[in-house]
Structure formats: C-alpha cells, structure tokens
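Dear colleagues,

As part of the handover before I leave the project, I'm documenting each prediction I ran so the next person doesn't have to rerun anything. This entry is a single chain, and its sequence is reproduced below.
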Amino acid sequence: MTRPNILVICSDQHHPLMSGYRGHPYVETPNLDALAASGTAFTNAYCNSPVCVPSRMSFMTGKYASDVDSWFLYIPLDRAETTWAHRLESAGVPATMLGKLDLCGDYQDAGFGEHKIIERRPAWSPYPRRTPLLDRLDGYVRPDKRAHIMNSGVRAGLITDGSDGHNDKYGFYDHDRIVTDWAVDYLRDKGRGDRDQPWALYVGLLFPHWPYCVPQEYFDRYYPDNIELPFDASFPNESLHPALRHFQRGQGIDGLTEEDVRRTVAAYYGMITALDDRIGQIIDELKVQGLYDDTYVIYTSDHGESLGEHGLFYKQCSYEGSVGVPLIVRGPGLAMGEACEEPVSLVDLYPTVLDMAGLETESDRRGHSLLPLARGGEQVREFVFSEFHGNFFKDSWYMIRKGDYKYTHYCNERPSLYDLAADPQEMNDLAADPRYQEIVAELEALLRTQVDPEATALRAKHDLGLIGPDGEDYTRTLTVTDVHEGRRTGRFEPEPELK
C-alpha cells in the first residue's frame, strides 16, 4: 500500500488523566493502554473550546472556533468552510463518518462521502438569535445538571435504539454499541475490498458523556471504594475565581454530598471502561482484517470532564480536567510507546490527517501536523489556545498554555495564571503575584496576536442575542427573570425554534 488508511476515534467528555496509560490507579482501559504502547500519547493535549459543537468544528476545519463563529451549541457551520473530510474526498480518499460529529441543522455530512448518525443536533431558527441566550445571564440555573448527579449510578437493564441517550435511565451505552457495530461492519467490508485503495473512517462515540449511568457490571468495578475523590471538591466552593463561582451556581450543585460525588465518579469510571471495550472491538477488527499495520489510528475526545474537581462538573472551564483531552496517535513509521509532553491541541488534527494522506495544509489553518512529534521530532508550536463563549459564563474567556504556564483571560474579570509544573491541580493562582506580572503581560500580548478578545466576545454576544439594538450588553444589565418578563410584554421575541 502506498498510502495508509486513517481511523479517527473521538469519544465525548473524557478526562485527560482518567486512563490506565496515564497512570490512573483505578480506571481500567486495557485497549487504550495497548494503543498508547503502539504509538505516541500526547500528555498535554487540549481542545480549542470545551463544549461539543465548537470543539468539533475547530478540529474539522483546522481553525479556531471563533474563526468560524462557532460560539456554542445549535449554531450551524458555514458550508463554505473546508473540512479535512472535504480535502480527503477531493484527493480520492473516500471518507466515512459513523456516529456523533455534532454539526447542527440541515448540514450534517461535514464533507464526508458517506455518513450515518443516530442523533442529529438541530440549529436555532432564526439565527443569529433575536432574544437573549438565558444560559449566560445572572440568575440562570440549569436544573438537569444537578439531576444527572443525583440520578447517577446503574443504567436501566434493557436494550434501546440508542436515540434516547440523554435520558438519565439509559445514557449512551446503546448509542456506542450500535455505532461500534457499524464500524466493525465497515472494517469487514474494507477487509474484503481493494487493499490498494486507502480510506478514512471517523467514529464518533459518546461515552463518557453524561448522563452518569452505566450497566451494573461496570459500576460494580468501582463503587464504592475503587475511586479517587476529586480534589478541592466543595459545594459551594467560595475560593473559586468569580467567573467560575458564577459557573458553579449555574450548575445548581451547591450542597452535594460525598456519597453523591462517590456514586457519580464510580459511574463515570465505568463509562470509560465501557468506552474502552468498544474501542477494543474496533481495533481488534482492524487486526482481524489485516488492516492494522497499514492504518493510522487517532484516539481523542472533544473535551474533558471536571468530575467534581474544584467543586465543578461537566466542561466549559479552562481547568485541566475540562479543557484537556486524551490524545494518542499510532501508525506506520511512528514511534511506539512514547509519551510526548509538548503542548498540542485538537486544531492540529486537520493538518495531521492531511499529512497522513500526503496532502498539504492551507496557509490559513491554525495547527501543525503531529506526525513530526510522533516520529520523535522537535516541537514547532510555541503555545496552544482555547476559548469559550457559551453557557454558564456571562463573558467569554481565552486560554494560552505556553511552556509550564497557563494563562486565562476573563473578559470583564481578573485573569488567572498557573504554573502547571509546580501546581498541576491549579490550586495557586499567580496572576496577582507581583513576581509574575511580566509573565501575565507576555501571555496576554501573545493571546492578542491570535484574537482580539473584546471584539470577538462582542461578536459572540451579538449572535447570541445578548447585545440590544442600542448596544446594551444584556449580560451586564439583565437577569433571567427580566428576559422572561420581556417576552411576556413583547420586548423580546420568543425563544428561537430548533430545526
């Protein structure tokens, strides 16, 4: 074979440290461990926006989420944007998508020649929004977030069609079972086909995304004692940065008990092990069909999961558990059993996939191919970047990781700075320390070479209905109650439909 095949497996909401190959004392991931032993594990990998849709639009296009105006969920991608699937198809490499990719609205294929999904996310209509997005206003509390934690544990013991995965009784176990079966069937077909025709397959699995429920056998591996309780897990946590305390209040999780956390952590661990079993099925089929040696494999997740760390659950913030992701790359000619500590991000997937196919990357893409690092080469990037413009935060934030330092710029709030080498749990914010002011200034200047944070935040607010016709910033002046009253009186239009 002159050109290898490409297999990309993307899970959803996988904490970067919660795998056996990362040294976790309890989480069992033998298949990911074997994949890491056969390739390179990137131990400082980040998503470019820690929520599903913007992260995926970034790694599909090789651009930052703000480059393509992907601020939050329910926002469609412009069909004019080129994805790596478009590039592969144009070069004669058939590309197939199975499972979750999370485009919104009518445009679902993302340039893949074939695609099959179970759950299609709709888009707001009309969009841009003409009524304020409540999720970013004072007084917003999302009730289902607390409910997921209170209902965590064992999944109902029945088989579903996978389409009701957000239900706390079922979760995404059946979704992943079905998508894995699709992937296995695809690989069997390729095993019978033309071995000289390279192909690309994207598999979108949903574990360990909430709801936190898993079959009994997986839950029992960890509950009640085979877990690590999260650090700094106070509910409420009054020591949080003001923007993060606002986030915690929006989750509605004040007053959680140790038992609530213990049960949820055990279920999450079980979800990771169930995910690992699915990945094992796919890799095993590659080997059975004699395709493994001729296939590049990438495993990653769209973002992480805080899982109680700092008193937070879910994603959305710039702490390591949320913005960090697992990332493994293996394939022909790449190093085996290596751990690369250089900071990288998911925007690097676009040039990496093109490099695997022998294609050049356009000059307007933000990332760099990971293959030189996976061959033992030197780092070519100076820093990594992430951003967030969605729910639970009144204002946008932007993160720069350079060397050991992580800087987060919060619009209309003070910044934060952590030395991750000395303080990997991010307990000691250095931003106000006079000894670190030069580093803060350097990293803010670096951030501004990538994006105008205030102008970009304003664009996001305009699109999300948060700027009034006279320029009023509703995140500064309105509460959720005000908007409800404004809808009643006709000041604001009804909530846009989802289509």
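Residues 258-288 form the longest helix (31 residues). Residues 125 and 411 are 28 Å apart (CA to CA).

All the best with the project,
I.
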